[in-house]
Amino acid sequence: xxxxxxxxxxxxxxxxxxxxxxxxxxxxxxxxxxxxxxxxxxxxxxxxxxxxxxxxxxxxxxxxxxxxxxxxxxxxxxxxxxxxxxxxxxxxxxxxxxxxxxxxxxxxxxxxxxxxxxxxxxxxxxxxxxxxxxxxxxxxxxxxxxxxxxxxxxxxxxxxxxxxxxxxxxxxxxxxxxxxxxxxxxxxxxxxxxxxxxxxxxxxxxxxxxxxxxxxxxxxxxxxxxxxxxxxxxxxxxxxxxxxxxxxxxxxxx
Length: 254
Hints:
By secondary structure, this protein is of the alpha/beta class. The protein is built from eight helices and 13 strands. It has helices at 44-59, 76-81, 86-110, 132-140, 158-169, 202-207, 215-224, 238-244; strands at residues 8-11, 17-20, 24-29, 63-68, 115-119, 128-129, 144-148, 173-178, 183-184, 196-197, 199-201, 228-232, 250-253. A nine-stranded mixed sheet has the order 6-5-7-4-3-8-12-13-11, with helices on both faces. Helix 1 crosses helix 3 (86-110) and helix 5 runs parallel beside helix 7 (215-224).
C-alpha cells in the first residue's frame, strides 16, 4: 500500500495535536455532489458546506488536490446514447467540469483558501493549463489544486482522471466522495439487505465488477499502489477522518 512513510502531527484550530496518516490527498468529487436536491446545476449552499470541510483539511496542513466531475450539468455518455457523437459529448462534459471547478474555487477563496484551477483543456481566461510540475509547486505552497476537464481526452471518465492525476502528483490516497457510506455488493438504495465491505483488494473490485470506479481507474490505482477510500460525503467531518486514518467507508488496497 502506498502510504505516508510516517504520520504527520500538526496543530488543529483547538490547539490539539492531530496526526495525519496521509499528507498529500486527492479528493474525487462527483458533479452530482454539488447539486444537492436541486436535480440539476450547482447548489451554492452545498458548495459552501463542502468548502467549509475542505478548509478544515487545509488548516491541518494536508496537501489537497481535487478532481471534480460534471454530471450535474452534462453527462457525456448519456448524451451519446441519445445521438450526440461520443467524442463531442465527452468534450461537452469536460467543459461542465470546468464550471464546477470554478464554483469550488470561488467557494474556497471566499473562505481565504488559496486555490488554483488547472484544466486539461486550454481555457487560459479562467484556468491555468495542466502542467505537472506547476501542480506540484502549487501543492508545496499550500494551495488547493482543482483539476478540471478530466484527462483532456474523450472516452475517459473523471474517475480515470482522478487515478491518473493522483499518480502524477504522488498522492498517498484517493478519497472518493459518494452518496453512500462505502462499497456494497449491490445498490444499497434499492436493496436493504445489501452487504457493505470494510476492505477490498483492487482485484476483488474488478472481478466482482463493483461499480465504484471504472476498470481503467481501478487498474491505475492497482498498478501505482494508491489506496482508495470510498465514503459518504454527507457525513460532516468524514474527509478529515479519512486523512487522519480513522476507519470510515470502504478501503480498497492491495
